[in-house]
Amino acid sequence: MEDAIVLRDLVVDRGRWRVLHGISCAVPRGVVAGLLGPSGSGKTTLMRAVVGVQVVHGGTVTVLGRPAGATDLRRRVGYLTQAPSVYADLTVRENARYFAALHGRSRADADRAVADVGLGAAAGQLVGTLSGGQRSRASLACALVGEPELIVLDEPTVGQDPVLRADLWSRFHELAASGVTLLVSSHVMDEAARCDRLLLIREGRLIADDTPDAVRAAAGVADLDEAFLRLIRASEAGAGVPAGTGGETA
Amino acid sequence: MNPRILAVTTGRILRQLRHDRRTVALLLVVPTLLLTLVYYMYADQPAPPGGVSTFDRIALVMLGFFPFVIMFLVTSIAMLRERTNGTLERLLTTPLARADLLFGYGIAFGLAGAVQATVAAALAYWVFDLDTAGGSQLVIMIAALNAVLAVALGLFCSAFARTEFQAVQFMPVVVAPQLLLCGLFVPRDEMAGWLQAVSDVLPLSYAVEALQEVGAHADPTGTMWRDLAVVVGATVLALALAAATLRRRSG
Predict the structure, then answer these.
(1) Whether the Cβ atoms of residue B228 and residue B211 lie closer than 8 Å to each other
(2) What is the pLDDT of residue A238?
(3) ipTM score of the complex?
(4) Interchain CB contact of B18 with A (< 8 Å)
């Protein structure tokens, strides 16, 4: 089957700055792909390009076999923005039901999505009265409720306690097991270890694209944190991408 | 456009309004308080010989003006929030069409404006004995069209504001000239030629003329229908411009 996401030489400029410098990679279907990198490295811009809301200046973005942003993809792709984008003056349930209805899903689907992110007890509360972590889960419920084939999540677990984070990650893997593809950005390394594939970007360039094990092997250390540091240093030293990472999936 | 998506979007906007009880109360109470103020201001003023009383003249225009100014403000802020909270960007990644959102706002706040005008008109007709030759239902219809026009202008103007402070500043820019030149203070045909020309391109002038036609004639006149056609045309134009400001892709 074709890959869920294929980027070829993706270039994005913001004003006079080049944010992404010709990124090429592919994400197969049915995996949880982690997009990692320091803040300001271009993670959000890359995700926006995949969702089709970013003006791109070079290269191509193919999503589920179609050019990113194509009209029919709007029913097949779910997007969670980094800042929770839900209506503060509606309850959690009303938000979920609205986004469910936009995707032609039922009220029961909406209520299930709310329960899945652990907000069942707060479903009747106005989003404006929730804590930051709860608010971002309300936003997550609205991204999952359309049952999309590709889910793009920009830092979905920020501000969540460890138990909830573990629950959310097992939910992500359940979804992947059912054939859904997830692209999840994070800057927490223990989350990187939970991904099936990793994309590491730094300053708008891809410096690793592989499984966590392969990334560890390439860097020659067992700790992912340390592995990333080594890869970053190697890329800074001008050594390019170390052998064993990148290339083969693009 | 998709009727189901339009309906759920309209419902969502009305639900947001319903959760904000204080705003609903202000929407309904403020026009009645202002009408009361105007009534007592002119209570002891004699009516011009053979003419309409000053209260009747002003109240009739106010009934159309309230929904116009309030719905312009409410829409500008609501749409600005959609833009700054990221919900607009998210909506544009869903199957929702831009027209679903624009018409959703038009219907939801048009309804709110109609309710507002109905409450104010009930007070004006029943308590303050407002006298119009034409029916009150025509007055309310014109007020509702004014509300929809204001929504369309608000949707468009919100694209030029980055903050709520800026959005509020568009109120005097868009609304004040239309109020001053609509013919309430100085009859339009007594203004300087260039002011008349400006007044001629401002949609509120036509809404006010339509209200004055209802005030003076028992049956709807051709002038009233022409005026309403202009108001509807201006609404469509503003909606088209607003649609052009909703970009799915940004930099």
Answers:
(1) no
(2) 66
(3) 0.89
(4) no
